[in-house]
Every structure is written in C-alpha cells, then in structure tokens.
Amino acid sequence: MIKKVLLFAFIILSFASNAQKAQRIGYIDMEYILENIPEYKEAQAKINNKAVVWQQNIEKQQKEIEKLKAELNNEKALLTDELIVEKEEDIQILEFDLKKLQATYFGADGDLFFLRQQLVKPIQDLVFNAVQDIATKRRYDFVLDKSSSLIMLYTNKKFDISDLVIKNITRSKKAIAAKEKQLKRNKTKTEPKILNEESQKKISDRDLKKAALKKKIEDKRAAQLKKREELKAAIEAKRQKRIKEIEAAKKAKEEKKNNN
After folding, report:
1. Partners of 25 in the β-ladder
2. Are 32 and 161 in contact (CB under 8 A)?
3. Using one digit for the tens of pLDDT, what is the confidence trace for 9-24?
4. Residues near 55 by Cβ (< 8 Å), separated by ≥ 6?
5. End-to-end Cα separation, the chain, in angstroms
6. Could you tell me the pTM of the whole model?
7. What is the pLDDT of residues 92-117, one digit of tens each?
C-alpha cells in the first residue's frame, strides 16, 4: 500500500513540476504479454511439471512417516518403553528431514525459486527491454503495469502498449535468430574442418556457466537420492531388528506365562 501511495505521489509531483509540458503515460498488462510469449508458456509448463514431481516426493515421504506411526501404535502393547522411545525418535528424525526436503524444493531459496530464475527471468528481462525501447522511442514519461499491485481504477485502451511490446519482442527474436543463422553460415564457410587445439579451448563464459549450473543440479539430486537410499536402508534395518525384538519379547512373554 505504501508503494502505491509513493508512486501516485511521485506522478502527481511530476505533473506539478512539469505543468507546462504535456505528460505521456502508457501502460502494459504484464500477464497478457507473458501469455502471448510461447517461451513463457514452455517455461511455466516445465516449472509446473517439476513442482508436481517434487510434491509427489514429499507426499511419498509423508505416507512413509504415517505408516511408521500406525505401526508404532499397533505394536506399542508389545514393546518396551525403550523401544517405543527409539521408534518415536526415528519418526521425529524423518519428520525433520521431510521439513528440510520441503524447504529444499519450495523454500525461499529452494529449487523452485532457482528454476524460476533460470527459466522465467530472461523472459521478463526481454519484456522490460522492450518496454524501455518503446518508452524511449515514443517519449513516454511513465509506463505502468496494469497487472501489478498498483490499483488502476480506469484505463483508456488507446494508452495500452501491450501489443506493441509483444510485436517488439517478436521482431527482436526474429532479428536475433537471423543474426545467429548468419553467423552460423559464416562460421561454416570460414571454419576449418579440423579445429586446432586453441579453438577447441575457446568456450564462452555462458557455456561454462550452463555446464556448472547443470553439474550443480545433478550433484544436488545425486546427493539427495543417496541420502534417501541410505535413510531407507537404515529404516529397514531398524525395522528388521525391531521385528526380531518383538518376536523375542513375544516368546519371552509366552515362556513366562507357561512357567507360571
């Protein structure tokens, strides 16, 4: 709310300080623009698919915990106090790991945030650059976002430059694609069939960053998978041990009953 008030105050002050000059104001609908960019839809689909998989992993672990809780409740009458405490502690550890997994996936600096930064931010930057280009060329003093938290009680469609932004982005992408195609053709013509050692070592910073990013994600997933497998193995080992202890307890109880 404070940001809205400050923005309106800034606009009013600008009007007052430039009373002799006609102000040019335009607005965009960011949601409308993004929905008309194919790359954005593809990025959102990838993000949603990943989020579904991550949520399924969380739900699977939650079910495992609920199963262990149910087993503990069923076996309590046959277990010693020491075994009950031990089982409860194991369940608490799993619940703690579950919270960490949720934070890893959906936390403030989690995988979902990281994936959005990787896939969506470049598209948002593309929109921002297009708005800047149009505003500069058409000499707009302000360009507002209709879909933001700013409340716009009335808008005149003739001041909506959303379609101009989409056209600007489309032209930019075509120009970039044409340039890359031309560069590829030139490279094919001039590049020798066998690259020398120096040429092979020339890897762009962008490629290096992509490779490092990919390795980081793969290492993180591998570490998580290894931890899960170790945790499952530990749980199963304890489970088998407790089964034997339960059987021993039952046997001891029966022997005591028979002796009496």
Report:
1. 142
2. no
3. 445 445 444 445 567 8
4. 105
5. 78
6. 0.55
7. 999 999 999 999 999 988 999 999 99
Cα 156 to Cα 21, 29, 135, 142, 146: the distances in Å are: 21, 13, 17, 15, 11
Q: Are 24 and 140 in contact, with CB atoms under 8 Å apart? A: yes
Angle of helix 38-75 versus helix 81-106 axis, rounded to 10: 180
User: Is the model more confident about 155 or about 174?
Assistant: 174
Return the structure tokens found at 161.
């430059």
**Contact predicate 95/110, CB 8 Å:** no
Instruction: Show the 3-state SS of the chain.
Output: CHHHHHHHHHHHHHHHHCCCCCCCEEEECHHHHHHCCHHHHHHHHHHHHHHHHHHHHHHHHHHHHHHHHHHHHHHHHHCCHHHHHHHHHHHHHHHHHHHHHHHHHHCCCCHHHHHHHHHCHHHHHHHHHHHHHHHHHHCCCEEEECCCCCCCCCCCHHHECHHHHHHHHHHHHHHHHHHHHHHHHHHHHHCCCCCCHHHHHCCCHHHHHHHHHHHHHHHHHHHHHHHHHHHHHHHHHHHHHHHHHHHHHHHHHHHHHHHC
232: buried, middle or exposed (CB in 10 Å: 19+, 13-18, 0-12)?
A: exposed
Q: Which two tokens stand for residue 206?
A: 């962008």
Looking at the predicted structure, is the pLDDT value of residue 255 above 90? no
